[in-house]
Amino acid sequence: MSNQAPIETVSSGADKAKLAGAAVLLVAAVVAYYLLGQQSLWIRVLALLLGVAAAVFVFFQSEAGRQLVAYGHESWREVRKVVWPTRKESTQMTAYVFAFVVVMALFLWVTDKTLEWVLYDLILGWKR
């Protein structure tokens, strides 16, 4: 039995039209930016920003856009529920991590040098 979540698709024709319209507006904004190549940079950027804003507006009118907004609200609600550690707890955990890293580095260095000594000096008899 598969536990995969079902794939959600756009169901209504109106939503498909809104998403297609948003894509067309986005492409039109980029095309307008390049077609206005002889104009001032401010005009070109303004045309691009207006086109992108229109595309975003149309996208958020679709069901997919509303689901994205709902997801953002739910995520923000969950972030507010998180109990964040105090400054003291964060400092202590950081110190523990640094201490662990130093201990592991020393352990690995000692292990490496021991294996090097055993292999090269004792087994192979190579003297450096």
UniProtKB/TrEMBL annotation:
The chain crosses the membrane at residues 19-36, 42-60, 93-111. It is found in: Membrane. Keywords: Cell membrane, Membrane, Protein transport, Translocation, Transmembrane, Transmembrane helix, Transport. It holds the Pfam family SecE. The keyword Transit peptide does not apply. One of its GO terms (cellular component) is plasma membrane. The keyword Cell membrane applies. It comes from the Bacteria. Signal peptide: none annotated. InterPro entries: SecE_bac, SecE_sf, Translocase_SecE/Sec61-g. One of its GO terms (biological process) is protein secretion. GO terms for molecular function: protein transmembrane transporter activity. PANTHER family: PROTEIN TRANSLOCASE SUBUNIT SECE. This is Preprotein translocase subunit SecE. It comes from Ideonella livida. The lineage of its organism: Bacteria, Pseudomonadati, Pseudomonadota, Betaproteobacteria, Burkholderiales. The gene is secE.
